[in-house]
Amino acid sequence: xxxxxxxxxxxxxYNRIARIFDGLEALMELRAKTxxxxxxxxxxxxxxxxxxxxxxxxxxxxxxxxxxxxIDLSDRMLExxxxxxxREHIAVxxxxxxxxxxxxxxxxxDAAVATFVFCSVPDPVLGMAExxxxxxxxxxxxxxxxxxxxxxxxGRLMDxxxxxxxxxxxxxxxxxxxxxxxxAGLAVESVENMTANGLVRLIRAHPGN
Length: 209
Hints:
This protein has a single domain (4-207), classed as Vaccinia Virus protein VP39 (Rossmann fold, 3-Layer(aba) Sandwich), CATH 3.40.50.150. It is built from seven helices and seven strands, in the order αααββαββαβααββ. It has helices at 4-17, 21-24, 26-40, 75-87, 124-134, 152-169, 177-183, and strands at 47-51, 67-72, 93-96, 109-115, 135-146, 186-193, 200-207. α5 packs across α7 (177-183).
């Protein structure tokens, strides 16, 4: 069940930092560009849903000929995404929408993509279950996410500082995203470590039976 208060808070946080969001992530993006390319190389043509489109960082990697719909909870982030799409002449259908309650019929898309999104969705299992619902049987779900490290000391430290990080930028740093994907009914096909320590992972899955 959606928590309206948590969802409103998440929206407010990202609206608050929308103007400076790209600047906040500029250093990380130097590495993330390679990860994004790796993900989008696995996305074919067809109807694609990008969840948490943000300011449009993935737009440069959209496959040629794909019909992309990008959604985001934050209207101010979407404003910046629209400006980017216009500036870079990218065709994309941008809509304000909650990942926890997608306004699409079952099996609407050939693939769904999210990059560094489910760290901030209030109920990540509910959001991923929505991806499993709107992607066609046999379709693909690709998630690029940072996750909680299972090393006892580091994992515990991530748990301790997580509330501070959430208040600052709205993202949880201790999500067990692989476990959440399975709980949501996604069948995980592969997991690729983007960093040596496994902090950032590329998860490829499909809707379960």
